[in-house]
Design brief:
single chain, Alpha-Beta Plaits, 4-stranded antiparallel beta sheet, 4 helices, rod-shaped
Length: about 190
């Protein structure tokens, strides 16, 4: 009889240990640790994928001809550089025969910030391109205005002429009020 009680007692003790210690530990802290490990493994895989994509983009950027990269950077810079742009516009106006009398920087409206330069939304809904408006006042002949506009058209910097107001004169020298939009990456 003793030989039967001992195995039954050992079985009951093992069932008790299972339900009292092993099962709560396995489904509690071990399950939590497994979930954390799985989450960390997913984050590690995403980080590895990001690093691989970053390396691809770096190698693609390094494959671009440096002169073309400099031209792209000039066309759509990553900062506004108002002073440099105003100096360039003033030099262009002087070469064209116009005299700039007033240059004001006007912040763009919030509605233009969600769209890109071509008017389409970017994939994420937030455009990486920002803009600022410049108001220019100039004095000169119509031929000088045409030369100035051709110079803006051929400029290495992305500019839009948004508005031109011409005030007439009997002398052939006109007063122009222009609104230009300047784009840059942010």
């Amino acid at each position: 009889m003793n030989s039967r009680i001992l195995p039954i007692f050992a079985l009951l003790v093992s069932i008790g240990i299972f339900f009292a210690y092993i099962r709560p530990t396995w489904s509690g802290s071990i399950a939590t640790a497994r979930a954390a490990i799985a989450s960390d493994n997913q984050a590690l895989a995403a980080a590895s994928e990001y690093a691989a994509q970053q390396n691809e983009l770096i190698s693609a950027r390094n494959a671009i001809d440096p002169t073309n990269l400099a031209r792209i950077t000039m066309f759509l810079p990553d900062s506004v550089d108002n002073v440099g742009l105003i100096l360039n516009l003033n030099a262009l106006a002087a070469r064209s025969g116009l005299s700039l009398s007033n240059v004001d920087v006007i912040a763009s409206s919030a509605s233009t910030r969600g769209t890109s330069a071509v008017g389409a939304l970017s994939v994420s809904g937030v455009s990486p391109i920002n803009s600022v408006d410049l108001s220019l006042s100039a004095i000169g002949s119509y031929a000088a205005l045409q030369a100035f506009l051709v110079g803006i058209e051929k400029s290495e910097r992305l500019l839009d002429v948004r508005d031109i107001v011409v005030k007439g004169s009997d002398t052939g020298v006109y007063t122009y009020q222009m609104l230009l939009r300047l784009y840059w990456l942010h």
